[in-house]
Structures are given as structure tokens and as C-alpha cells.
Backbone:
DNA sequence: AAAGCCAAGCTGGTCAGACCAATTTGGACT
DNA sequence: AGTCCAAATTGGTCTGACCAGCTTGGCTTT
């Protein structure tokens, strides 16, 4: 009851999309037509609108092609960015990998970044401030900031890795648990300052500063994570239940 | 703009999506909430499912963020340029990522490696020599060598990344093509020397030497790749006749 | 018998209305 | 003034229906 599903309220079309993707990878060839929407709906036990949303998402991911009044066809057997499946590692392992890679990404971004890059980074920062002002976690903007930085390298492999690591970290149950046991408000100014420093260094086209700013940021995350991890284990031993929940 | 007026039955959600995007760029700020789906449907004179599909497409494009039971929020004023439709990246992008990561993996392996690590690396090297003696490509042993090195870091995330990058590289069609256009025999002694140097540095627990040995190795791969890539493109343009075509 | 033609049926595209669950909000109560 | 609860709001999903273009199979015509 306490620990059953703090789970992800996943939209059902996402589940259906994954099942369709799996079905295709298992037994469909390129160019082949999928069953009709109505049949898929019956197969998966959902309504047609849900199936339509799943198909649309896969079409946008470049996996399917919808031809009106004809059918849905497979145009690629691999779903876009699931190249790296990083699951089952602790947040500390994940963080170490980020510490290895992201400072260098920041350095390259400082060299190769364009005005468009800076604009997108500034956008992410603006959104982060807004989310913080709302008293909300800035997960979306944080994700976007790091991915945009990776995109600035022009290297799709690095984008994919950075994206995977970020997702794996925030989706880890431990990470979520920890967020419940610490006052994130105390850290938000630091997160914001970290990102602003990275942005400034990148925009100034200073690779070394960008790299060290990113290193500092990730070190701060690691420190916070260690504090929280310790607090959590202590709380687990001393507080059986009824710990004051933060609003999420 | 869209020079296809006659027979382009555009799906209505695409029209709605464009209108929403225009609306946002005209008068919305980041973080701001959009009107409710029902209101948008009324505004644009379409049904709610159509609005939902439009919102979903913009969400997948990284422009909007949907929060259940709360609303739809602007996270970027511009549509993210084909982030999700990476058609797979070239071998050079892949190699650059490896150049960023693997030297550091080697350095960490030199610090944390155990006797078991050294034994497995030596095994991989022995296999490599044997495969070369057989006149075969040493892909299996090469793969194993790099993965074992990553495993020596004790970080599962790094193992996964290293493994993914290696697979993506060798599985890329371009990589395979190139192998057909160059005499790999000429390079094998170099590959072997490279790996032996890495192994020696790791076993000597010298992180700096391990890192630079790995860098040298990857630089050699890059050079060979460039030579082969050039040779291939020249062969394609200048030698229509008598080029040893592979049967496809 | 072969060629062409047309209607019935699939299939995606869209619409309308309804209910649910989670979030938000505002007022009532303490 | 602070707390707490219930109603309103909002996205999530379902049902069932109708439309328009493509497909197919049978039928007519040559």
C-alpha cells in the first residue's frame, strides 16, 4: 500500500504504442500493413481514439506511415531513440557516467553552439525559473537544457546518450523516493545558478569554463543525492509512516 | 509556402497544430497554460479528439507539455528540429562519442581493475591474435575487450553505453561497406598493438597512459575510417568498371 | 473469354456526448 | 489567519456514429 504504485501515471496510448512497436519488431516487415484501427483497439482492449493516439505518436517517431482510407504501414522497424536502454543502475552509477560525459559535451557545445542553441538554452532557463516560481520541480526544463546542450555538439550519438542517462536517472525509483524526503526548495537556487553558469560559459564560447561549470553542477547533484540518500535511510529506520508529504 | 494545393488532403489535426503553434509564437510565453481542450475545440471549430491529436503532435515535437488533470503548457516557442527522428548517426559521430568516453573508461579501469579484469583482457587479446592468425576479422574479441574494460569501472551505465556504441558502429551499413573496400590485413597488426598498449597501461595501473593509449587507438580507427571512406567514394565515382562489387 | 465498369465494403478521419480520476480552487469552518 | 473539504475544472478514455476516399469483386459489355 505504501510502496505499491507511487508509479508513473502513464497514459494508456503510450502503453499501446510500446506494444505495437514490440509487435512490429517481433513479426512485421517494412512496408507491411498493420491491422485496422478497430481491430487493434479490440486486440489491446482499448478504444479507437487511444489506438489512434498511439499510432500518431509512432508515426511522428518515424516508425509508421498513415495512408488515409488505406491503412497504416511500417516504414521503420526501430523506434527512434531507444538505442540505449539504461535501466537497473543506481543513481550514483548514472551520475558518474554523466560526470564523465557531460562536461565534455558542454565544452564542445561552447565551441560549436549557434545562436539557435543559445536561444533554446535561454528558453529552457526561463522555463526553469518559471517552474521554480510555481513551486514545482523543474524536471522538464532541466531535461531540455541538457539535451539542447548535447544537440549543440551536432552529434546524434551524444544526444542519445545524454537523453538516456537523464531519463534513466529521473525515472529511477530511488531518485523519486529521495525527492520525497528532502526539501527541494532549498536546492532550487543552486540548480538555477549552476545552469546559468553553464549557459554563460557556453555563450561566451569558453570550453574550459563550460566544462568546469558542468562538473560543478554534477558535483552539486551528487552531494545533494548523498545527503538525501542518507536522510532517507535514517528516516526509514526511525519513521514508520506518516512522514509529512510535500506537495507535488 | 506549401506548394501543393490541389490534392493534398491534409489531416485537420495538422491544420490545428499549425494554428496552435502560430498562436503560441504570437502571444504566449514559456510556461504559460493553453486554454482547455474543450475551449480550443470550440475556438477552432473542430472536435476535441482533433485538438487532442494536434496537441499530441506538438508535444512530441517538444513544444508543449501535457500535465494530466491540469492543463497543457508551453515549453518551447519553436518546434524542436527533428530531434526524435534521428535516422541513426554516421560512424564518425559514433566514433567521436567513443573518443570522448572510452579514454576515461580506460583511466578508471586502470584504477579499479582487478586481477580478474586483467585475466579477461588477456583472454580477449589472445582471442584477437588467434582470430587474426585465422585471417578473420577480430570483431568478437574487439567487442569483448572494450566491454570488459568498461565492466572494470564497476559502472553498469558505462558498460551499457560502451556496448551500445560498439554495436551501433559495427552494425552501421557504412561501416560494413567500408570493410569491403580496404585491405583489413594491413591494419590488423596496428589494432593488436593498440589493444596491447591499452592492456599494458591498465595492468600497470597507470590511468594517464591507459587514457592516452585508448585515445591513440581510436584516432587510428578514425584515420583508417577516413582513408577507407575516401577510397570508397572515389571508387564509386571513378571506377564504374571492374570494381569488385559485392553481391547484394 | 477478355476487358472495362460500378457498387458494396473496408479503412482512416472526424464528430458528439458522456463518464472518470486527479488536480485546483475557493469557501466554510475552526 | 490558517486548515480542510467539496465542488469545479481539466485531461484521459470510452462508445457509437457518420463521412469520404480507396479497394475489391462481381457484373456487364464487347
Residues:
Amino acid at each position: 500500500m505504501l510502496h505499491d504504485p507511487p508509479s508513473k501515471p502513464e497514459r494508456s496510448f503510450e502503453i499501446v504504442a510500446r506494444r505495437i512497436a514490440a509487435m512490429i519488431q517481433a513479426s512485421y516487415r517494412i512496408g507491411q500493413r498493420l491491422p485496422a484501427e478497430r481491430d487493434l483497439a479490440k486486440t489491446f482492449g482499448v478504444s479507437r481514439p487511444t489506438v489512434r493516439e498511439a499510432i500518431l505518436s509512432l508515426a511522428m517517431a518515424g516508425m509508421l506511415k498513415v495512408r488515409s482510407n488505406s491503412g497504416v504501414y511500417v516504414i521503420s522497424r526501430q523506434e527512434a531513440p531507444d538505442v540505449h536502454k539504461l535501466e537497473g543502475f543506481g543513481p550514483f552509477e548514472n551520475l558518474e557516467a554523466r560526470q564523465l560525459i557531460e562536461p565534455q559535451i558542454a565544452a564542445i557545445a561552447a565551441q560549436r553552439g549557434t545562436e539557435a542553441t543559445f536561444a533554446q538554452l535561454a528558453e529552457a532557463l526561463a522555463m526553469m525559473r518559471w517552474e521554480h516560481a510555481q513551486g514545482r520541480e523543474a524536471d522538464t526544463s532541466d531535461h531540455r537544457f541538457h539535451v539542447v546542450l548535447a544537440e549543440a555538439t551536432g552529434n546524434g550519438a551524444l544526444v542519445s546518450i545524454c537523453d538516456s542517462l537523464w531519463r534513466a536517472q529521473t525515472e529511477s525509483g530511488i531518485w523519486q523516493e529521495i525527492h520525497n524526503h528532502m526539501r527541494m526548495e532549498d536546492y532550487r537556487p543552486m540548480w538555477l545558478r549552476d545552469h546559468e553558469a553553464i549557459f554563460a560559459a557556453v555563450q561566451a564560447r569558453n570550453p574550459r569554463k563550460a566544462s568546469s561549470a558542468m562538473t560543478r553542477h554534477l558535483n552539486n547533484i551528487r552531494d545533494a543525492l548523498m545527503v538525501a540518500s542518507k536522510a532517507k535511510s535514517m528516516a526509514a529506520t526511525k519513521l514508520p509512516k506518516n512522514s509529512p508529504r510535500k506537495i507535488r
